[in-house]
TrEMBL record:
It comes from Cytobacillus mangrovibacter. GO terms for molecular function: oxidoreductase activity. Keywords: Oxidoreductase. Coiled coil: none annotated. This is NAD(P)/FAD-dependent oxidoreductase. Residues 6-357 form the FAD dependent oxidoreductase domain. The lineage of its organism: Bacteria, Bacillati, Bacillota, Bacilli, Bacillales. It comes from the Bacteria.
Length: 388
């Protein structure tokens, strides 16, 4: 029959496409259909991401997700090559650095111990060490930092395209239409209804619709605490180049910055109401980011803003972490959203582990049970001390 699949994935961003790729790459032989409403990914979060990759988390599950994903990203270009055409994801392992004022240092020391116990080679740096990494850094008010040299940043759009291309090669069908609702029959998922009224049926539906995912779920009476939260990024240039390329650097104020080619990007966790909104405001850079940049690195005093953009976090309002797994009391309905600001870096591990869970009913590579849907009702949240 025509409109039938074995697995339907809603959303063909980095998460949906990583799941599609991993399912087929792991040997799933059924029909996988991915629905994507935005064929050029104009508003998807993935291409609007800052592409930061870090292992500096404070919960074992997030550390494990990043550790696993790091190994995949290190070899991504070659592993995802098709007919010897490699995928250039521009992974710059220039490090990830959290700067700390005095009172943050004991907390960072605790984080480092946990990270080291979980096999991540993070280091607590003193003031003087910081200048070896960023010679121009103003460390007057800074006591030190938490640093991981293996981390860094990559090109999110290319990663997503790498997964899409390979998933298609393995047989995934991408349908560029909008899903308007989930189809259910009592406690079993049945498929999806499209905006044009057509129905597609499948016994398994995976909701990877990012910032739009919770609306679909809520409308089917399957709520989850996730909202769309706008986040801006600004690109700027300076007159006097820095001596070294920057790690992704997080200022104690929450402003982050890194190189983008020979230029720079920066962003911050602004206080803003949840909404779907893609406006970016030059004045936010001038008022809220530039003074912090200029104080931290003298060369940034002459920052010339060139462009900006805004994208959406699929923001989990309860504990800011991914929600993964089958929805209780709705057989066959799987979710993978709520990533907030760190879905890009978790996509390889999430794709692999969801493939295992969907195909075999259990996790094999990593145990991601901690991120289950039920944690909200059970009040067993995953509280991260380092989420921005
Ligand atoms: C400004 C910004 C900076 C970020 N920085 C980082 C970072 O440094 N590091 C990091 O790891 N993460 C970062 N993130 C987060 C990261 O981008 C996301 O967690 C990740 O891209 C989520 O991927 P996704 O596939 O779930 O969502 P998306 O890429 O949004 O994909 C979801 C897809 O679903 C489609 N869709 C939605 N509804 C429907 C429907 N009804 N029918 C059909 N298709 C539908 C959408 O069109 C979209 O293409 C950042 C995000 C933003 C916005």
């Amino acid at each position: 029959m025509q409109n039938k699949a074995d697995i339907i994935i809603i959303g063909g961003g980095v998460i949906g496409s990583s799941i599609a790729y991993n399912l087929l790459n792991d040997g799933f032989t059924g029909k996988v259909v991915v629905f994507e409403k935005d064929g050029i990914y104009e508003f998807a979060s993935t291409p609007r991401s800052a592409g930061g990759f870090r292992q500096l988390y404070t919960t074992a599950v997030n550390i494990q997700l990043s550790k696993y994903s790091l190994q995949i990203y290190k070899n991504f270009s070659k592993t995802m090559a098709i007919d010897e055409e490699e995928v250039e994801i521009d992974f710059k392992q220039r490090g990830y650095l959290f700067l700390a004022v005095d009172e943050m240092m004991p907390r960072f020391e605790k984080h480092m111990k946990l990270q080291n116990e979980n096999g991540v080679n993070s280091q607590l740096l003193q003031k003087s060490d910081l200048l070896n990494i960023i010679p121009e850094l103003n460390v007057e008010d800074i006591a030190g930092g938490l640093y991981c040299s293996e981390s860094g940043y990559l090109d999110p759009y290319s990663v997503m395209q790498g997964y899409i291309r390979y998933a298609k090669k393995l047989g995934a069908e991408y349908v560029y239409d909008e899903v308007s609702s989930l189809l259910t029959d009592q406690d079993q998922i049945k498929g999806v209804k499209l905006a044009d009224g057509r129905e597609y049926h499948a016994p398994i539906v995976v909701n990877c619709a990012g910032a739009w995912a919770s609306f679909l779920s809520e409308n089917a009476n399957l709520p989850l605490p996730v909202v769309p939260l706008p986040r801006q990024i600004f690109q700027f240039d300076i007159e006097k180049p820095l001596q070294k390329y920057l790690p992704l650097t997080m200022d104690p104020t929450g402003v982050y910055f890194r190189h983008e080619g020979e230029k720079f990007i920066a962003g911050y966790a602004e206080e803003i109401k949840p909404k779907i909104d893609f406006k970016w405001r030059r004045s936010d850079f001038i008022d809220n980011i530039w003074p912090i940049l200029a104080n931290r690195i003298e060369n940034f005093e002459k920052a010339k803003i060139e462009r900006g953009w805004s994208g959406l976090y699929d923001f989990n309002t309860k504990d800011h972490n991914a929600i993964l797994g089958e929805y209780p009391k709705m057989k066959g309905y799987f979710v993978a959203f709520g990533f907030s600001g760190h879905g890009m870096q978790q996509a390889p591990a999430v794709g692999k582990c969801l493939s295992e869970l969907i195909r075999t009913g259990r996790y094999e590579s990593l145990d991601l049970t901690a991120l289950r849907v039920e944690r909200f009702e059970e009040n067993d949240l995953i509280i991260e001390d380092a989420i921005y």
